[in-house]
Amino acid sequence: MDFSLSEEQIMLRESTRDYARERLAPLAQEAEEQGYTHEEVIKELADLGYFGVCTPPEYGGAGFDSLCLVLAIEEISKVDASIGVMLSVTNSLTQGALIRFGNEDQKKTYLPALASGEKIGAFCLTEANAGSDASAVKTNARLEGDMYVLNGTKTFVTNGSIADVFIVIAVTDADAGKNGISVFIVEKGAKGLSVGKKENKMGLRASATTEIVFDGCEVPATNLLGQEGDGLRIAYTLLADSRIGIAAQALGIAEGAFDESVEYANVRVQFGHPISKFEAIQFMLADMRTDIEAARLLTYRAAVLKDSGADVLNEASMAKLFASEASFRCVHKATQIHGGYGYIKEYAVERMYRDQRVTEIYEGTSEVQRKIIANAILKDSQK
Q: How many CB atoms neighbour CB 338 within 10 A?
């Protein structure tokens, strides 16, 4: 198997790394304290093409492969994981929905503005009683003439307060159970759509996470994505794709924590020596590096398989599961290496420790990923 990157991929990785270190890293702490990513930074990201990495050129995107998106999210998440998840959602869950399941009119209407960063995307699935069990959604949509009318509340919506285009999962036929769920494209400003409370989160505080409320929200029937009843199939496909992005985010956090730890260990002196000279610190760094490389291989492999057209449900789950839990091990060790300073907000590892935690929860908890992987194992065993 060839593990080398193409010239295009290397160039993207290096340019993203330079931009992240020089521009985003100095602003990360301020963005967290403010609770949002500055509009100027979002515009820069848009101008640099990060909102349309995989979008086909005919719709205004760069047309790169999924591994390029992984590389971009990874490099940015090393310094600011809030931006990493913003890019993951608008690329994978919003534009991914349109690219995979939209008709030509829908693609032409929405993709150019999303790919250019003129508009930001969001994905509305989770509800108060529907998280890991996507089939339990209660938000409903009924057809009235040439409009669907949506009612319900979505929670934990990434990009919620800044989004312009929402991909919404809703029930269109309550009697059909799992086959009665559909997907809609809803625009900001639609009658009956409003932004609810902003969540006061442990980490990723510069990422806007809100409720989205649909109160008699009117959506043109032409904004149905796919067919009625396709909702769960679409949602599960998109979540598998997006889990690769979250694995990349977790990988980036782990690498950021590792980089901070190596630098700190080389300058922090105790007992007359840099702490990097002590075997206990060396072993932690060795474990971190090994976890990072294993997570990288799983994540990159899932991205490459996705572009081959393979069903990556299992591979995406393995990448997301391992990368998120490896990331936890890395940020934990990074905090230990920093000692008391790792508990202080002026040091980046304190923020990384909190940012990492949700990677084991959203886009399907680690327990959900294990269930998906186990189901695949047992299915294969019965062939």
A: 23
pLDDT in tens, 338-374: 999 999 999 999 999 999 999 999 999 999 999 999 9
List, for residues 65-117, the tens digit of each pLDDT value: 999 999 999 999 999 999 999 999 999 999 999 999 999 999 999 999 999 99
> How far from 36 is each of 41, 180, 198, 288, 300, CA to CA, in Å?
11, 37, 11, 30, 29
pTM comes to: 0.96
How many residues does this entry show for the chain? 383
Q: According to the model, what pLDDT value does residue 1 have?
A: 63
3-class DSSP state of 146 = coil
Fold assignment, 122-229 = Butyryl-CoA Dehydrogenase, subunit A; domain 2 (2.40.110)
- CATH annotation of 7-120: 1.10.540.10
Neighbours of 149 (CB within 10 A): 18
Measuring CA to CA, which residue among 232, 247, 238, 268 is closest to residue 349? 268
* Full DSSP string of 231-265: HHHHHHHHHHHHHHHHHHHHHHHHHHHHHHHHHHH
Instruction: Identify the bridge partners of residue 125 per DSSP, sorted by sequence position.
Output: none
Q: Taking Cα atoms as reference points, which of 260, 248, 268 lies closest to residue 353? A: 260
What mean pLDDT is reported for the chain? 96
How far is Cα 40 from Cα 299, in angstroms, rounded to an integer? 30
Backbone angles phi, psi at 56, to 5 degrees: -55, 145
Task: With cut-offs at 50, 70 and 90, classify the pLDDT of residue 302.
Answer: very high
Query: Which one-letter amino acid corresponds to residue 308?
Result: S
**Contact (Cβ atoms closer than 8 angstroms) between residue 216 and residue 149:** yes
Q: What residue spans in the chain does CATH classification 2.40.110.10 cover? A: 122-229
Q: Using an 8 Å Cβ cutoff, are 322 and 244 in contact?
A: no
* CA separation for the pair 36, 198 (Å, rounded): 11
Active site members: 363
Topology annotation, domain 232-381: Butyryl-CoA Dehydrogenase, subunit A; domain 3 (1.20.140)
Closest to 35 in 3D by CA, of 267, 220, 200: 200
Give the residue carrying structure tokens 């515009």. Answer: 43
Distance CA 261, CA 247 (A): 21
CA-wise closest residue to 204 among 252, 276, 259, 137: 252
